[in-house]
Amino acid sequence: MTMFHSAVSFVLFLLLSAPAEAQSINLDSLLPAGDPTASGRIVQLVVVLTVLSVAPGLLMMVTCFSRFLIAFSFLRAGLGLQTTPSNLILVSLSMFMTLFVMGPTFEQSWQAGVKPLIENRISQEEGFTQTTTPFRTFMMANVREKDLAMFEAIALEKLGADKKLSNEDFRILIPAFMISELRRGFEIGFLIALPFLVIDLVVATIVMSMGMMMLPPTVISLPLKVLFFVLIDGWNMLVGTLVRSFA
């Protein structure tokens, strides 16, 4: 009976799997209509996979994510906490703050570029221009003129006067914007870490003057810094200041 049940089960498995084997994946639906040759489709597929793989990194480079993450990292270091809040919490908070600040930019990019492109109302070239224009406007409003001038001068040296790039070209604007964000992030980090440094110095001086050489000052300063940060409602002040720091 056991062999009979096994044979029946095997036959039913073959009958049920037959329709699944007849189905196939239509790769043409993943690519837009264009070059009908196999090599052209392969190139298009490689380009699509490449863009999808680097898309998160590109979004981090053209948004305010780096400033939030740097400021929160300086806060954790200033408090003297190694793993609290954890990296997952800091990254998640930075991402949601980025979505909050960049909300109007994302909405404009979707309405002006992505949505019409999906509905086939504009071409790919026009869709790219309309999608990236809000991000270009945001970066131009927050980039430092000094950083833009530096990359313009470097591009002029490398390409020559006959191929001068505009300061709105992404090859100049994106690295200049990233450098500007790093600088502002470190400036904010310095202002965050300074009060905690003062607390550490005061506690260390008091401990040394009392002759408690074997007692690490961080044992006393850590709860004092956490208490100080909670009493001044530090998270509210820090996040509010970071959000308002963007043009």
What would you say this structure looks like, in words?
This protein is mainly α and 247 residues long. It is built from 10 helices and no strands. The chain is elongated. The model is unreliable at 1-25 (pLDDT under 50).
Topology:
Layout: H1 2-22, H2 38-61, H3 65-79, H4 87-101, H5 103-118, H6 124-142, H7 145-159, H8 170-209, H9 217-231, H10 234-244
Helix pairs in contact: 3-4, 3-8, 4-5, 5-6, 6-8, 7-8, 8-9
What are the main properties of this structure?
elongated; 247 residues
> Globular, elongated, flat, extended or rod-shaped: what is the shape?
elongated
Helix content: over 70%
Count of DSSP-assigned helices: 10
Query: Mean of the pLDDT scores?
Result: 76
| Rg from alpha-carbon coordinates | 28 Å
Order of helices and strands: HHHHHHHHHH
End-to-end separation in angstroms reads 78 Å
Uncertain runs? 1-25
SSE-based structural type: mainly alpha
- For the secondary structure, the number of strands is 0
User: How large a portion of the residues is in β-strands, by DSSP E?
Assistant: under 5%
What's the main sheet like? none
In short:
This protein is mostly helical and 247 residues long. It contains 10 helices and no strands.
